Amino acid sequence: MKRPYRFLSLWLVLPLLVALLLPSAATASPSSADNSQAKFVAEASPGVRAAQTLSEVTGIAISPLLGVGGIGAIKYLRATEAEREHLLWYAQPWFWVPALLIVGLCLAKDSAGTVLPTSLKKPLDMLELFENKLSALVATGAIVPLVMDVFQAARPEAALHAPSFSAMPFAAVDISWMGNLLLVPVALLAYGAVWVVSHSVNVLILISPFSTVDALLKSFRAALLASVVGMHWINNYAGAIWAGIIVLLCLPLAGWAMRLAVFGHLFAWDLLTLRRKRFTPEVCAPAGQGGQWAFSARDWKALPARTYGRVARNAAGELVFHYRPLLVLPPKVATLPAGRYAIGRGLFHPELLRLEGEAESGCLNFPPRYKGHEEALARICGAVEVRDVGLLAAWSWIKRAFGFGAVAA
After folding, report:
1. Does CATH number 1.10.10 belong to domain 279-401?
2. Global pTM?
3. Domain residues of the chain, as ranges?
4. What is the pLDDT of residues 122-179, one digit of tens each?
């Protein structure tokens, strides 16, 4: 395991260990302590709550709307009439009832996905893609109060409700801020890593042309969520261990999933809003001051596939690609190899091809907003020609084979 992941793993495990050690201090009571106090400590100890919260955060990250809506419904149904007025927003019926209804509609769409025509299913998949992003933002507001509730038993005002306040030596010291300082950023990191990997399932479904593959991907994610819930109900600590394993597996995949999420979001937005009808490519400004938005089509040099940036020509006439790793890190520049280039006219989007004799290799994928602007891209990027690729190339070959295609001069 690489060093950065070792560091992240340590910060994931450390808060849980702190939470597990705090109950030992809180339970250091005299032998005359009654059973009611032991029950309070067992149910409200930071260790138990930390284990429960790790499972809840992981489940919410896998399916944000279902996770927050389900947890809110459970909290509401378990609370008394007097307690329901003081529940947080996600545990109020005005939130969790519509949330679960939306989840039910998505489930009905997935159940009928194998019989729905692709022309109808893909727009619904696009809407679910944006719904998942919006749900993730809403669910983030529920993560912080869930995590801060872990150390509620360590607060003096919470300990006052214990059957024997004098039996807890740390009851008068508020140490909850220390636990929150450790747990809140770690929980948000774990939530972000698991969500972005889970969200990649929606992107893969959107770009997959096969309904069977869509069903398998959805079934895998549902089974993963069910395993987290099942392990949590069997045992709190077993559920926390399983949730921790999922988080550690998602951390090294987060970068790949992040690039895929950006790729899927921009492609879906351009297609859904028909942006190509309102877009005109601008002439490339000097290097570093503009260019055409594109994604890298494959791994080359230190540039991973689906990296988002701008391609432009520098003063020497070379094609350069400006990008920021993870969209926020310091900018970098990659120079495309010298050679002859062409613009590929695809069914949904154009791409930049590098020509090597009779062979061609994809270098960059332009978003769907550039569809219909292939000739302008060729002039801007210095490409020698525009040619059909993919399904359009196959269709052009079929038309020429039957004598319907135009013969090039």
Report:
1. no
2. 0.71
3. 3-269, 279-401
4. 777 888 888 888 888 888 888 777 777 665 544 444 444 444 434 444 444 444 555 5
